[in-house]
Amino acid sequence: MAVDSAFRLAIDASVGLLRDSDFVAPDGPASMLIGCPETSAALAAKVLERVKKQVATVVAAPLEIVVTTAEGERAAALLDRE
Fold first, then answer.
1. pLDDT digits (tens, 9 = 90+) for 56-67
2. pLDDT (tens digit, 9 = 90+) per residue, 33-46?
3. How far apart are CA 13 and CA 70, in angstroms?
4. In b/e form, how buried is each residue of 25-49, taking b as 16+ CB within 10 angstroms?
């Protein structure tokens, strides 16, 4: 499976598990950022673990899935990086 196709499947699987207020944005050629505004880091981590499991069932290609949570200024710094 091509990387682009696997990445598209991963994004689609992620969006399907998120709320209307959450967002998915590209964060590099094969990386995405999932934002869960107005959500504690602890709750976001639970949501992102569900996303991680769903992506693993949908995408047959080997993917590295790393979950990092941040709140407040740390989250703002993560969004501001270039």
1. 898 887 777 777
2. 888 888 888 888 88
3. 22
4. eeeeeeebebebeebeeeebeebbe
Residues linked to residue 23 through DSSP beta bridges, in sequence order = 35
- Torsional sign, CA 73, 23, 40, 53: negative
DSSP state of 37: T
Alpha helices in the chain (DSSP H): 3-15, 41-58, 72-80
Domain boundaries, the chain: 3-80
Which of the 8 DSSP states describes residue 61?
A: S
Taken in order 52, 53, 58, 64, is the CA torsion positive or negative?
positive
pTM of the model: 0.72
